[in-house]
Amino acid sequence: MTVSTLTPPSVQCPECGVHSIVEYKPTVYHCLKCDFEKDLSLSPEPKNAGLGSVILGMLGFSLGLLILL
Ligand SMILES: [Zn+2]
Questions:
Q1: Residue 33 CA to ligand 1 centre (angstroms)
Q2: How far is the centre of ligand 1, averaged over its atoms, from the C-alpha of 47 (Å)?
Q3: What is the 32 CA–ligand 1 centroid distance (Å)?
Q4: Domain residues of the chain, as ranges?
């Protein structure tokens, strides 16, 4: 019987290239070898930014309509 870990050592560290990335928190990945850390919750999502600009555009469009009416 082998003791299975929560996270399989399949994720390769972009810093040292060793497959030692563990899921430190639900959104944070940590390398046991070189202390590399990646917080997914902090990384900006361009999808949201695009959506934000679309919403802003729609708001501006509706405001323009309101002014015209
Ligand atoms: Zn590393």
A1: 5
A2: 28
A3: 7
A4: 1-42
User: What stretches of 1-69 show up as alpha helix (H) in DSSP?
Assistant: 46-68
Going by C-beta distance under 8 Å and a sequence separation of 6 or more, which residues neighbour residue 19? 9, 10, 11, 12, 13
Average pLDDT score, the chain:
81
Ligand 1 centroid to residue 25 C-alpha, Å: 17
Which among 55, 17, 54, 22 has a CA at the least distance from the CA of 38?
22
Condensed to tens digits (0 to 9), the pLDDT of residues 42-63 reads: 866 666 667 778 778 888 888 8
pLDDT band at 65 (very low <50, low <70, confident <90, very high): confident
Which amino acid is located at 8 in the chain? Answer: P
